[in-house]
Amino acid sequence: MINEVDSFSPFLGIEATSYEAWALTYDFMVGYAMEDMSPAPALAKEWTTSDDGLTWTFDIRDDVTWSDGKPLTARDIAYTYNRVLDGGPEAVTWSSYLKGVTKVTAPDATHVVLTVGKPNAVLPLLPIPIIPEHVWKDVSEKQVKTYPAEPTDGQPVVGSGPFQLAEGTAGGSTYRFVANKNYWAGPPHVDEVVIRVFKNEDTMVQALIKGEIDFAEDISPLQVKALKDEEGITAQNGESPSFDEIAFNSGSVDTETGKPIGDPNPAVLDPKFRHALGYALDLDQIVRKVYQGAALPGDTIIPPAYPDYRWEPGDEAFTFDLEKAGQLLDEAGYKKGSDGLRTMPDGKPIGTLRLAARTDASLDASVNTMEYFKEWLADLGIKAEVQAFESNRLTEIILDGNFDAFQWNWYVEPDPDSMLSNMTCDQRGGWSDSWYCNDRYDALYEQQHNEMDQAAREDQVKEMQRILFEDSPYLVTAYTAIGEAVRTDKFACFQSQPDPGGVWLVQYGGHNYSSVRPASQAGDCDGVESALKPTSAAEDSGASNGFWIGVGAAAVVLIGVGGVVMLRRRATVGERE
Amino acid sequence: MSLATTPTTAVDSAEPRPRRRGYGRYVLSKVAGAVGSLLFMLVVSFFLFRVLPGDPARTLGRGRFTNPEQIEEFNRTYGLNESLPRQFLTYLQNTFSGDLGISLKYRVPVSDLLLDRMWPTLLLVGTSTILATVIGVWLGIRGAWNRGSTFDKASTGASLTLYSMPEWWLGLLLIAVFAVGWGPIPGIFPTGGLHSTDVDPSSLAGVLDTAWHLTLPVITLTLAYLADYALIMRSSLLDELGEDYLTTARAKGLRDIVVRNRHAVPNALLPTTTVIALSMGFIVSGAITVETVFSIPGLGLLGVEALEVPDYWVLQGTFLVAAAGVILANLAANLLYGILDPRVRT
Fold it and tell me: Of chain A residues 1-60, which have a CB less than 8 A from chain B?
């Protein structure tokens, strides 16, 4: 879901649009590669690890300057990380990336040294925006919790990224970024990027058709379909690394005493019961009917966007096979009684399973998924009812353990560590919404977190997914897509992430803001073959042209929320050099 | 308008009364009442939003604050780890010293946020209310005076239709026709927002640009509000039509238009005054649906979006502003009535 920027301060913002804003304004020391989202050199050219894996030395570029002309050195990087390590508001968003890091120093202007207590497999990935020490040293620990990091006295925000925020305030409706002509990786091909917030998807689509904006982000599958027929517009449902799931109460307990809490149906506490239900989901129908085709059938918690870490169920994969589901339930003791309803192994009735859905999710995917699930359960001889709640209320119900199953979703980062941690025993009462707990899974989690051999780590991560697949605290229903549309008669050269099939914007690393070009100057997009080419002969009027992007999401009323980015192309071709 | 201020019922007692209270004491009692209501709202606004389900750190931090320490740090930073009574005391202390707290979502002082969002709302809803009042009252007068005429039927029918139309739908319709263009109609208006990025909002061009952006939303709201004023004005003027003093006025030989404007209308204006005063109070509550359709960052949207988090301090702030708006407008209406109709002072 995409909303307006909630804060331009890298220490405070949370919304995806804020992350886009920082990707424009700042740089990472080690960021994400465009192609596979793996850790990639950014401010650091290269890095080495000591043999014991406890000391990391990063070689920092010496040709980077802040937008106010001062040089960016290793000291700025160490300063940023130390602010996070020192705790306080700065630690809220970023401390998880520096988990286990005990010391960060900059022995000279071009080297950063990280010391860790235990080997940490998530390193060298450090997607923390690097801030200028000479600006932020005046922002005290007390001030930082409300420090907006917005333009003051008409001066753009000081950063080192490809664009600088020149105009805009958190929660506002337009944010204007101007190109950094001295960007170390080469100047961007457009003069300005303007993000405009739309609170309504329909309005945003109208603005795209009219040409007020050049890119609309997060639109519905129906709108994508309609926009495909518009001349000069290219639209897609872009694959994004996220999944929707049906989660079961796998054992809610009081985390202090270990005693069971809540009132889960005893049937859903049994991994065999949950796993059998995996065969009772017609995922193709869910994709078609619930997501209007804008999704892929799901299986494990690591989406196809990350093939290195993803475990493929292969022959074990769930198919829609009610007979097999029934057979597995029979074997586990859930046999059909005389009334056609299945009973517990001890002969007691199962009763009615409560399927909780969220009412505020976009596209009604939550309620619809559960309605289908209910029908298929009925075919199996299991009674169920769908209950709809607002998200905040459902969170409380989950934490109290008063549920059998619910529908929700996760967005998965390129490094699987944080997603995997959500299913550990320690996260019960925290982010674990299924209350799942498995000692072997936890042991593997610790192991992969400290594993410095990439191949070994991938194997461990896959084994963890296999365990989850067996125990089925989650039945992953779909890998969802994000609707996007772009005026390819004006701007081109967007590369998908993942490539092919992935989203064009709101990616990891913000690379496309540097590679997007006016259609008339697209050429071969620097040889990137998969990049989005311009449609029709783009007019080269030389006049100032706008490229606009829109983003939409569900809001409280019947209406959507969104943001838009507009890239302003160079005033004339002559100014290009 | 369920909150309609009925001025203290004007009892015309048959018995001769002692002297009426002076205006000063009347004002004093009304002001005291308003202050009391405000204090009550102050307390309500704290507890009202605390009973909402949801935990801000969880709603905001999903997928971002990955371990419990991060959530704890967030709660500590924004004072959410303290006990409820302690938070209530802090809230009272802060509010009386003019500090409305920090928004959990935007991390800026709520008072800054409210001021930021206040002027788009005032421009949008204020302008629409004034336009709707003037046009509505005019329609009501014309309609009532020529009751049953084509004009009366057309205006009543049209304003009722517009009144019953969902505002967001009307807004989208206007966007599709006048912002995007339809058939021969060119799309000359912008689809939303408050101003363009390339003009300075404080310059003359900037003001005109903002007016240009606000045209469609103001039209939408004005059309939606019209019926309120038109129908009330129409019916209260109809009540006056049969009155003897109008016959007298006509008998004096006054022209019809003078009879209407000098005699009938002033007497019929009283109920309309109440409605107008109240609407003025509701201006600062914003217009959620129209703000949404036209993407105007106003107070209505701010409050509604804060519910999702829930962003307690923003909710309290918007609630207080809205309550204060209604209470003050109520007070103004009461004081005005005290002058217009001295009977209410008893």
Answer: 6-7, 9, 12, 14
